[in-house]
Inverse folding.
């Protein structure tokens, strides 16, 4: 999670919400990473998780990422939760909860819904205070500029 936090901090340079993600293979090696790049590219789908999933698929040459773990600093939204399920990621680890748009326990629980076709192990709240603190600092900074 600390590595994902460092990736999240890189998003600040482009004015993006500081969210970082990385994907680890079954051997514990980081094979891909992503950070929010919506502002940088003016792309509503450029969430950290989506970019990390795309890069992991490029590295592995496969869209199925079974036996891989996604680590992300913020609870995924509905779009990202859907992409995580579709990618067949085995495990999701996230830091801070997103009580406005979270789709893995806060507002919805897409990945653990009993009707879901794909099962993902979820570990929530890892370094939650540190992950949440980075987001709060960013939001407070934005409010000061407005």
């Amino acid at each position: 999670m600390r590595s994902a936090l460092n990736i999240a901090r890189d998003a600040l340079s482009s004015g993006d919400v500081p969210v970082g993600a990385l994907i680890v293979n079954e051997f514990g090696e980081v094979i891909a990473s992503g950070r929010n790049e919506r502002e940088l590219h003016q792309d509503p789908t450029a969430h950290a998780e989506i970019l990390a999933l795309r890069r992991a698929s490029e590295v592995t040459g496969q869209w199925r990422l079974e036996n891989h773990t996604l680590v992300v600093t913020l609870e995924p939204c509905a779009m990202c939760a859907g992409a995580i399920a579709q990618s067949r990621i085995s495990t999701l680890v996230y830091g801070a909860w997103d009580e406005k748009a979270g789709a893995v326990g806060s507002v919805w629980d897409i990945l653990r819904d009993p009707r879901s076709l794909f099962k993902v192990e979820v570990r929530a709240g890892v370094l939650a205070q540190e992950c949440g603190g980075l987001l709060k600092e960013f939001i407070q900074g934005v409010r000061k500029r407005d």
